[in-house]
Amino acid sequence: MNFLRLTNGAAVEIGKIPVLPFDAFAAEVTSAVAAGGRLAALFGCPLPEGGVELYAVLAIEAENALFAGRAAVGAGYPSLTPACPQAHLFEREIFESCRVRPEGHPWLKPVRFPDATTATPCGVTEFFRVEGEEIHEVSVGPVHAGIIEPGHFRFQCHGETVHHLEISLGYQHRGVERALVGGPGPRSLHYAETLAGDTTIGHVTAYCGAIESLGRLRVPARAQALRGIALELERLANHIGDLGALAGDVGFLPTQSYCGRIRGDALNMTAVLCGNRFGRGLVCPGGCAYDLGAEEVADLLRRNVQLRRDATAAIELLFNAPSVLARFEETGKVSLETCLSLGLVGLVARACGVSRDVRRDFPHGIFRFAQLPVCTWDSGDVFGRAYVRWLEIQKSLTFVEEQLQALPGGAVCGEAFAAPAPERLVVTLVEGWRGAICHAALTGADGRIACYKVYDPSFHNWFGLACALRNQEISDFPLCNKSFNLSYCGQDL
Amino acid sequence: MNFWQTILPVLAALLLAPLLPGVIARVKAAVAGRRGPPLCQLYFDLWKLLRKGAVYSRTTTWVFRAAPGIALAALLCALPLLPAPGADALVSCSGSMFILIGLLALARFATVAAALDTGSSFEGMGGSREVQFAALAEPAVLLALAALARASGTCALGGMFAGTVGPLWQTAAPAVGLLAVALGIVLLAENCRIPFDDPNTHLELTMIHEVMVLDYGGPDLAFILYGAALKLWVFGTLLVNLLVPWQDAARPLAGTGVLIVGLVAVAIAIGLIESALARLRLLKVPQLLLGAGALAGLGLLLIVRL
Fold this sequence. Notes:
A: Beta Polymerase, domain 2, four-stranded antiparallel sheet, B: mainly alpha
């Protein structure tokens, strides 16, 4: 491996990252991915003297290490995608943001439609079509019947069977990555909190990890524990809410109603931490903005017990109903090969039997001291994704309880803010409730952020949803979609 | 006296049909630990919709506008054909069971034609599903009614139940039980209840009946909602007549009371079924409907052999 070995959340000097000729760079990426690695980030950064430098960050779980390398390219380069399908969306994003053409990319479409003035309007693109007299096309969105985010889905159907699903996103592109360049500024933290509204803690922890490493800030142990508790509470709230929504999609009312309320209980526990149900304002560079008193710890422990009791009753009802299992099993199956070749992450990957979890593979913060068992299931279908959620709920409840009982003493916010070091690269990975969140930041010579890239787990997993729908019934789409429950704004940024 | 005995069930249907969906919603809410909407919510909705204007898509033609009226008219015509337990129907003619099936088919045809008229891929899918399932549900109803026709010796709905069902429960209870189960399954399918369809879903891709009426609003939607309530009342009446062998010559008017109580019980049962079951996979729906047809056929065979 000619790439530089990195640790999750530890900044390195850019100068130490090897600059490879493009062929060697491509060979490194392709062979590492073929050997079971995952492409965590691939992005372009414009060089001051013109041209673009490509950075690749590989996550090698077997070695518990990240590897970074770079290569300079001109107006185009031979696409990596044919040999390494994981790169397909990264390359489309690079083409869109840096205007560097990956020659030979099989499907070079816009990702986010960023320049409405010059290019085509949002959502207008060439869609794949299945020809044939009996094929019909169904298009859904971007305006939906429920209160959900905008996205366009186009199905090529034969009767009730879906042969192909194409997902076109980008309606929520806000230019957050661009807004973070030049920072850290007073609003950067708020941008990080709102990268994906339901993953506030996950994204802001990744952001603060990057800033702390660049600014050489030490985070006190108590703050690490509080961040871990908040992260797992976020996971609890979303997993419980998702199981309720899955029950609702198959028309199973009891679990739907109970879980809707129980999700609120988990959110209220986050509110005890910081006064906000989604954890806004809790995590800040250097630690946490709020501390817990003894009374609040006791309150949280009491709520945790109640949460476990309620969630267990509601969710066991779901998994004990044969009519529900009949709908969940064999629906929206993602094969292990598809999962590995697309580089799917998070609970979707774990439901395909891939033991992949940032908390174990690349531990950072509290997870270096407290291990959470990785929950997997090997069916790859809606049942697998629902069941992995339930397993993770149980593990997270235990984690929250243990952490609250053994909360380290001391302050929650140690050192004052320090300016980031110049010419550094930092990559932070956090296992949000959907999966691996990856933030990559490059600082310029002035210590300001020159390039900030965010990869929500949805970025990797949207294409997995499209593949899960192949040869499924179109009426099962809402169920499959909910079982992935991907973020639109996390992908659109 | 006979006049009141036959017209009361029709008046009750016209006035009380919108109550049934309210009962179902309340039962479902109670099981889920919620309070639920008011019992009379559908009356409020109808009143609200009737005062609204309507918006029509430019791609639609007169077919789309005519459909709600045709469907409601067909269901209104079906009401006088149905008796209350122990009584005759307001309009009783030989072969009225076929008229009933025909009227229901007409209502369905109008709705499906209107759905196709919109040119929307969703509504086309909904229409295709509706027709596919109806092709399997209709034979089940016909077989069940044929069994009763055989037992009573008449094809008039009015004379089919009164005086026949009571003795039949004593001599051939299993056969009547099979017919009741078949009718119950068809009732759930025809009224887009779980496990066939989810009347509360907002997911267009999974809907069957609801998706066909997505483009309607205002008075048209009021017609459709009222028609749906009447359809539930029609199938419920068939089921109650089959299950309750009420016969009291001294108090003929009480038959209507029995009918109303029976229908509320049916609504509660639907609410409980919906709370306990998830929806079927769409591919499995035909299997369940074929099962209903087989049960009705078996019931017919048993009654023929009596």
